[in-house]
Amino acid sequence: MKNSGELILASTSSARKALMDGLGLPYRTEAPGVDEHVAASLSAEEAVRSLAARKARAVHERHPGAWVLGADQLVEVGRDVLGKPQDRDAARGQLQRLLGHTHAIHTGVCLVGPGGRLTEAVETTRLTFFPVPPEELERYLDTGEWEGCAGSYRVEGQGQALLAKLEGDRTNVQGLPMLSVVRLFRQAGFTFFTRP
């Protein structure tokens, strides 16, 4: 890595960590610990951009010499934005909205470097889910994959069996749009494929 200073992923998500691990860059994770509420007047794209920057800046304030990558994700169906469900009933309601329909996943990413230099991107992927009967939906809810996930599913797990069609970057659906992330890293001068 050409840049001096450590790289920190401002997230404790196991899915985001798995995607970052694939790049082979040395990094560590840290929980941003920020308020995730945004103004209802913001579009889904504006909300994820704002939250990704808030998370990255929060960790960067604690480590001003580091490079910090923040991310946030929301699901949009029709004109409604879906965040993380509070309980199984909320997860059921979210999935009932998505099954048999097409929805969008928006993920914002923000890279803050030494001196506070900031670059950001928003990636959108469109997914169509199969219509499934109520008993199958309940079996999926039994997996517990809905916990902590915007839209109440994980495509890197059993939730991929709900997926009829995907348009865009699959890693975006998993929580970290790696096409955008790599572009931000390259713009910042990171080098890849180096020996440890």
TrEMBL record:
Protein's cellular compartments:
Cytoplasm
Alphabetical list of Gene3D superfamilies matching this protein: 3.90.950.10
Which Enzyme Commission number(s) are on file for it? 3.6.1.9
GO cellular component terms attached to this protein's record: cytoplasm
InterPro entries from the UniProt entry: ITPase-like_fam, Maf-like
GO BP term (any one): nucleotide metabolic process
Q: What is its main location?
A: cytoplasm
> Which superkingdom does the taxonomy of this entry point to?
Bacteria
Which keywords accompany this UniProt record?
A: Cytoplasm, Hydrolase, Nucleotide metabolism
**What is the required cofactor set for this protein?**
a divalent metal cation
**Active site residues per record:** 72 (proton acceptor)
Q: Which GO terms describe its molecular function?
A: nucleoside triphosphate diphosphatase activity
The record's catalysed reaction(s) read:
a 2'-deoxyribonucleoside 5'-triphosphate + H2O = a 2'-deoxyribonucleoside 5'-phosphate + diphosphate + H(+); a ribonucleoside 5'-triphosphate + H2O = a ribonucleoside 5'-phosphate + diphosphate + H(+)
Top-level EC class as recorded in UniProt: hydrolase
HAMAP family from the UniProt entry: Maf
| Family that this chain belongs to | Belongs to the Maf family.
Q: What is the purpose of this protein? A: Nucleoside triphosphate pyrophosphatase. May have a dual role in cell division arrest and in preventing the incorporation of modified nucleotides into cellular nucleic acids.
Q: What is this protein called?
A: Nucleoside triphosphate pyrophosphatase
Species in which this protein is naturally found: Corallococcus llansteffanensis
